[in-house]
Design a protein that fits this description.
This protein has 20 helices and twelve strands. By secondary structure, the protein is α/β, with parallel strands linked by helices. The strands form two sheets. It has a six-stranded parallel beta sheet, with helices on both faces. Helix 17 links the parallel strand 11 and strand 12. Helix 2 crosses helix 7, helix 11 packs across helix 15 and helix 13 runs parallel beside helix 19.
């Protein structure tokens, strides 16, 4: 299903259902219904449906849940299209998936999931969606007694469907916003007095790609003609289809000019452009305009997420718009330049000491938020258009000229060589 259709279903069917379910909860609470205390929680369900990058950012919260509830079984519910990133994180013991390929598959797998959750007898649900109604409906119909989520004032019924009402603070990174729910459930501190110290304990995990994964990635770049010793730069010009991708893209013609300048500056450079299968034509349109075409390759749609992780491990620099691959790159601490405009780096910036962010401090940024359902009144990516090619090129030069040793690629290349020897 397309994202617009999914959002319409979520709104037009979800809101009436939430009103109805909130009414039932009001009656239950009047009858002195009591929820389980955190000490008795044995099964926990985390729900996050949208955004590969956002799912990556739930990892610190998952690690915190393991620490706070060491005997609990932690499960994850997401869309089937996100299965690979859940497998990459490897932080849960059981996972459930809803298939959004079609309306019929969505309905069937949702009903199947509800029956599975009832059978599992989940003690606690953490809803990491900010405005979707589906997790709350699943929590209620799945007979989950304890539910934690973010209580936005514009949707008053949320407070009746949530046991733990989280506070959404847009001055914090999304990683910490997710983490705040774990803190709230465990310590029942609505003022988050000790949260500043708590958040410092949990950072994004570091993935070490398996040698086999790195060898597969090495084979991919060899097959496209990348020579050993060449500088390898990966570029992601795409933003996921979830929310207004045209507002999150740096202009295609800017990428063309940047690639041309990199090719002029560095004779021993190879540039690969990544993306999903659905973004292949958009990426190819950029490649077709580049002057030195033999130094640029379109690999959009040709790699799995695991292979992409391996590929990014071998790159000397990754240039990307705000997207899922940017957060995947943070898992391996790859040298990264992140281009922002639609959403602010304070919320979604790369959690990576080897990353640099470029974003213009305009009053119009963020262009959409959870408070307006992430629907922007603006139609043009002006904040990103204001980031010049010269700015990005200078930062890229700084990485490629002065900081070759911090690149994950150096370690990855040495690892492959040592294993081959």
């Amino acid at each position: 299903m397309k994202m617009k259709l999914m959002r319409k279903i979520d709104f037009f069917m979800g809101v009436p259902l939430c009103y109805f379910l909130a009414g039932i909860q009001i009656i239950k609470r009047s009858l002195s219904f009591k929820s389980k205390s955190p000490d008795k929680i044995k099964k926990i369900l985390v729900i996050k449906f949208l955004g590969i990058g956002s799912i990556v950012l739930t990892a610190p919260a998952l690690r915190a849940l393991k620490d706070e509830f060491p005997e609990a079984e932690i499960c994850y519910l997401t869309f089937k299209s996100n299965k690979e990133v859940i497998d990459l994180l490897n932080l849960t013991s059981k996972n459930f998936y809803i298939d959004t390929h079609s309306i019929s598959s969505f309905c069937i797998t949702t009903i199947q999931t509800l029956f599975k959750l009832r059978k599992e007898k989940i003690d606690l649900m953490l809803d990491f969606e900010f405005f979707s109604k589906l997790p709350l409906i699943i929590g209620a119909l799945g007979k989950i007694k304890n539910k934690a989520g973010f209580c936005l004032i514009v949707e008053w019924w949320r407070k009746y469907l949530l046991t733990y009402r989280g506070y959404y603070n847009h001055y914090y990174h999304v990683k910490d916003i997710f983490l705040s729910l774990v803190y709230l459930v465990r310590y029942n501190d609505p003022y988050y007095v000790e949260f500043e110290n708590y958040q410092k304990k949990y950072s994004l995990p570091v993935l070490s790609p398996l040698t086999e994964t790195l060898k597969q990635a090495k084979k991919i770049i060899e097959n496209i003609g990348v020579l050993d010793g060449n500088i390898l730069v990966a570029i992601n010009p795409n933003a996921g289809p979830e929310l207004a991708p045209h507002l999150k893209r740096w202009p295609a013609e800017y990428f063309v000019e940047l690639i041309d300048r990199l090719n002029e500056k560095y004779r021993n450079i190879s540039i690969i452009l990544i993306g999903s299968r659905g973004e292949k034509l958009y990426v190819q349109a950029i490649v077709d305009q580049v002057k030195k075409k033999d130094a640029v390759t379109n690999v959009a749609g040709q790699t799995s997420l695991t292979e992409l992780i391996g590929l990014l491990s071998l790159t000397d620099l990754f240039i990307t718009v705000d997207s899922g691959p940017m957060h995947l790159a943070s898992l391996i601490r790859a040298s990264t330049i992140g281009l922002f405009g639609a959403e602010p780096p304070v919320l979604y910036g790369p959690l990576n000491e080897h990353a640099r962010v470029l974003c213009k401090p305009l009053y119009s940024v963020p262009m959409f938020t959870v408070y307006n359902g992430k629907e922007s009144m603006l139609t043009k990516n002006i904040p990103l258009q204001l980031i010049s090619v010269e700015e990005v090129f200078k930062v890229a030069e700084d990485y490629l000229n002065k900081h070759p040793n911090i690149c994950t690629a150096s370690f990855a290349k040495q690892l492959i060589s040592s294993k081959s020897a």
